[in-house]
């Protein structure tokens, strides 16, 4: 469920103040004010201090204020000054509210880009059960009565979505203008704030008060903008009214500590009122909660779970049935059997194939030594037969093939008188030599076959290990995806890098639109473009800090982001910076497609 980020800490402070005031009024009719006013104020102050601490813990980093470079040596002094604290809290308030508005605006813009059918489905099925029954009844009534029910639903959906887009866009416009005015004011008086923060604090607080009053004039009337035909179901009737500094404070050149403290508290009160007001009006125009958008699947799931629960209850021991106990026992036995047959035994077999079998691979069906003995015996037999047949000693370099040709020639000659030569000739001897040759060929074939089988033992073992390998690969991919956390721009994966590069694209677009507004003399629109550029730079600043620190690029990248936020820097120089950022810094480079 989406909620304004400030509601976690900031948005509850004004709520506590409202309830404190209500309880104070109720109790005042029974007890004297002096007995409880101090106690309630202490509770409010304690809550404010604790919420402010939690706020700073939630947001550890944000776009720095535009102080001059000479302030780097006096960072401790600047951080301790009340000036920096006030400005940082105001900037953080605007950044958080703009981020919440931007998320809802992007949702409605995505809905506006959908087809008529998708918008009609949203109007009927994604706004809760009440809208579902009302929308269905209205659709059936229009179809039966007028005959163009779908067209009416399309028009209602377009009006519903465009109203929220226009409202959130207008609100973002004024907040971005307010942000740009504050940033430009700090950039203008930055040197004075660094040199003498106490002296320049009074004029700065007066300027901040004036900017708050301008913001009140811009968005304070939004509570009364609702028209009779508005599709907003909820109502809000309280206006935005900021506290004003007393006239006596605005005229003085040097304030006392008490006056300064009161002025700072007044600024914080205005920040709290702004948070309360924005939380109320944005919540009314926000995107539906997740449970509202998916209420139909959730309802079906609840109904299915209920039916399954009733079915299980009928077969449980609570009603005297032993079916579930029997099913659990059978499932346990099946699981054990599956583990033994398909996991444990195959792994043991693979282990034996990889270790035990290969240790005994020398003991095959045919050994090379036996084949060599048969070959040597055949060579001696051929040599003796050749020497006896020719009557001379065989050449030492004669091969078995040459001597075998002599045997075959003698064998053919002996076959002319087979019976006579079988008993008194060399026919029987030639036959025995051929049997020995046949034996040698068979042994060589068996040796080669044994070597093939031994080689395939490795292949069979690898094939048996493939399921485990693929399972391990899937687990590694899941762990890698979870570790990279691609959902946001702060992640490590491809999607996070794309989102960070898109932030740079948005910064470039706002810089170019800012230049265009300046050329056309549209000062108000130019301030809005500067504020939007600051917003996207703040998101980029928060997204890249951790990655840039890990790669050692943070100091230079931080300075580039600060330079992009400078109002007076030339547009051409800013575009060169964004181009360099996309090409140089590792955290902003696209991942290769092979990864």
Description:
- The chain has 595 residues and is mostly helical.
- It has 22 helices and no strands.
User: What structural class should be given to the helix and strand makeup?
Assistant: mainly alpha
Secondary-structure element pattern, one letter each: HHHHHHHHHHHHHHHHHHHHHH
Judging from the principal axes of the Cα atoms, what is the shape?
elongated
Give the C-alpha Rg.
Answer: 44 Å
Mean pLDDT metric: 77
Poorly predicted runs are: 1-58, 71-80
Give a count of the beta strands, DSSP E runs of length 2 or more.
0
GO cellular component, one term: mitochondrial outer membrane
Main location: mitochondrion
Region (Disordered): 49-71
Keywords: Coiled coil, Membrane, Mitochondrion, Transmembrane, Transmembrane helix
Characteristic key phrases:
single chain; elongated; about 75% helix; disordered N terminus; about 600 residues; mainly alpha; 22 helices
Layout of strands and helices, then pairs:
Layout: H1 12-28, H2 37-58, H3 75-80, H4 82-112, H5 116-125, H6 129-145, H7 149-188, H8 190-195, H9 197-219, H10 247-251, H11 257-284, H12 290-293, H13 295-314, H14 323-359, H15 368-390, H16 400-414, H17 418-424, H18 427-484, H19 494-519, H20 523-551, H21 554-565, H22 571-584
């Amino acid at each position: 469920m989406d909620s304004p980020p400030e509601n976690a800490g900031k948005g509850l402070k004004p709520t506590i103040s409202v309830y404190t005031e209500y309880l104070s009024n109720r109790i005042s009719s029974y007890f004297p004010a002096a007995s409880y006013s101090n106690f309630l104020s202490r509770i409010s102050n304690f809550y404010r201090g604790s919420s402010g601490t939690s706020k700073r813990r939630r947001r550890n980093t944000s776009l720095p204020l535009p102080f001059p470079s000479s302030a780097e040596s006096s960072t401790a002094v600047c951080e301790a000054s009340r000036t920096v604290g006030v400005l940082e809290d105001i900037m953080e308030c605007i950044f958080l509210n703009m981020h919440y508005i931007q998320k809802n605006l992007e949702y409605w813009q995505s809905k506006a880009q959908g087809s008529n059918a998708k918008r009609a489905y949203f109007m009927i099925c994604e706004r809760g059960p009440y809208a579902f029954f009302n929308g269905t009844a209205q659709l059936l009534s229009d179809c039966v009565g007028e005959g163009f029910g779908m067209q009416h639903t399309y028009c209602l959906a377009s009006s519903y979505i465009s109203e929220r887009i226009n409202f959130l866009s207008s609100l973002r416009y004024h907040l971005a203008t307010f942000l740009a005015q504050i940033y430009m004011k700090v950039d203008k008086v930055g040197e004075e704030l660094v040199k003498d923060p106490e002296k320049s604090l009074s004029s700065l607080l007066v300027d901040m008060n004036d900017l708050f009053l301008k913001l009140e004039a811009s968005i304070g009337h939004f509570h009364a903008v609702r028209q009779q035909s508005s599709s907003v179901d909820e109502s809000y009737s309280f206006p935005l009214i900021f506290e004003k500094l007393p006239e006596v404070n605005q005229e003085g050149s040097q304030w006392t500590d008490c006056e300064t403290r009161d002025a700072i508290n007044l600024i914080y009160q205005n920040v709290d009122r702004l948070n309360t007001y924005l939380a109320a009006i944005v919540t009314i125009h926000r995107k539906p909660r997740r449970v509202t958008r998916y209420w139909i699947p959730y309802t079906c799931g609840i109904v299915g779970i209920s039916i399954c629960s009733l079915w299980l209850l009928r077969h449980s021991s609570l009603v005297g049935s032993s079916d579930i106990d029997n099913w659990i026992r059978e499932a346990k036995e099946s699981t054990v059997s599956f583990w033994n047959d398909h996991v444990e035994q195959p792994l043991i077999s693979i282990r034996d194939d990889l270790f035990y079998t290969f240790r005994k691979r020398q003991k095959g069906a045919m050994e090379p030594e036996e084949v060599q003995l048969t070959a040597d015996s055949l060579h001696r037999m051929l040599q003796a037969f050749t020497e006896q047949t020719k009557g001379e000693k065989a050449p030492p370099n004669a091969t078995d093939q040459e001597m075998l040709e002599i045997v075959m020639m003698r064998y053919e000659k002996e076959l002319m008188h087979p019976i006579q030569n079988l008993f008194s000739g060399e026919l029987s001897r030639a036959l025995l030599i051929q049997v020995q040759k046949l034996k040698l060929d068979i042994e060589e074939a068996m040796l080669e076959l044994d070597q093939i089988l031994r080689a395939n033992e490795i292949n069979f073992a690898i094939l048996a290990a493939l399921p485990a390998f693929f399972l391990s690969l899937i687990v590694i991919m899941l762990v890698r995806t979870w570790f990279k956390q691609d959902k946001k721009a702060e992640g490590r994966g491809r999607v996070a890098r794309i989102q960070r590069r898109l932030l740079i694209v948005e910064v470039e677009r706002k810089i170019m639109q800012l230049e265009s507004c300046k050329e056309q003399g549209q000062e108000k629109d130019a301030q809005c473009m500067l504020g939007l550029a600051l917003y996207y730079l703040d998101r980029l600043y928060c997204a890249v800090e951790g990655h840039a620190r890990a790669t050692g690029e943070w100091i230079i990248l931080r300075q580039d982001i600060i330079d992009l936020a400078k109002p007076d820097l030339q547009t051409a120089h800013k575009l060169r910076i964004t181009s360099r950022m996309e090409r140089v810094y590792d955290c902003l480079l696209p991942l290769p497609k092979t990864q």
